[in-house]
Amino acid sequence: MKPHIGRQVSHFLEVDTERIQVYFSKDNNYRYTLSIPFFENELRTKTMAVILKNPSSADAFKADKTVSNVEKTIYKTFDDVAKIEILNLFALRGTYPKDVMQAYDSGVNIIGDDNDSAFREVLLNSHYVVLAWGGASPIRKSIYDTRIDAVYEIINGLNSSFQIFRKAEKGSTTYPFHACYWPNNTSFIEL
Predict the structure, then answer these.
(1) CB 24 within 8 A of CB 80
(2) Where exactly are the structural domains of the chain?
(3) Which residues are within 8 A (CB) of 152 and not within 5 positions of it... i.e. 6 or more apart?
(4) pTM recorded for the entire structure
(5) 3-state secondary structure the chain
């Protein structure tokens, strides 16, 4: 079963679309990383990793609703960030998380073979990390929580000095507020 890939939108106007890099699986069913640089600015020197639930339609040419919202919010809130690295708990592409759950039930590896190594590589080169994957629904809580625990093991196993944030007003450390729903006035707290 191949999950539905939905509508694309333009990348944020401050994104240097010619330098975007994407790491897809050979069959294009998994997106492991999406590297989104802003236009060069001497005040912007940092890299921020943002960890989401699962990838949808964003690629080097177009964003999706969540990625576009991340681009705008991070640009406005962190004036020293030059590049955003998008990671996902589950690398299987699908606009609807219910499709990802159905794929799992059909025996598909929803995490992806290269996802953990992509996490390690990106996080080791990041100054900041924002947790923004939201709640489990419609993925079964047991599967979701197991994956969250594995991601925290990766984060805690790295000898890195990055700062970790989540949205301040809503969510929790286990279920940080999903980036698709960040309002324009989003503020972040460091964990």
Answers:
(1) no
(2) 17-190
(3) none
(4) 0.94
(5) CCCCCCCCECCCCCECHHHCEEEECCCCCEEEEEEEEECCCCCCCEEEEEEECCCCCCCCCCECHHHHHHHHHHHHHCCCEEEEEEEECCCECCCCHHHHHHHHHCCCCCCCCCHHHHHHHHHHCCCEEEECCCCCCCCCHHHHHHHHHHHHHHHHHCCCCCEEEEECCCECCCCECCHHHCCCCCCEEEC
Buried b (16+ CB within 10 A) or exposed e, 130-143: bbbbbbbeebeeeb
Return the residue matching tokens 């939108």. Answer: 9
Q: Which tokens go with 142?
A: 């047991």
- Locate 54 and state its tokens: 């699962």
- pLDDT by position in tens, the chain (length 191): 555 566 777 888 899 999 999 999 999 999 999 999 999 999 999 999 999 999 988 888 999 899 999 999 999 999 999 999 999 999 999 888 888 999 999 999 999 999 999 999 999 999 999 999 999 989 999 999 999 999 999 999 997 889 999 998 888 989 999 999 998 788 999 99
| Angle (nearest 5°) at CA 161 between 170 and 48 | 55
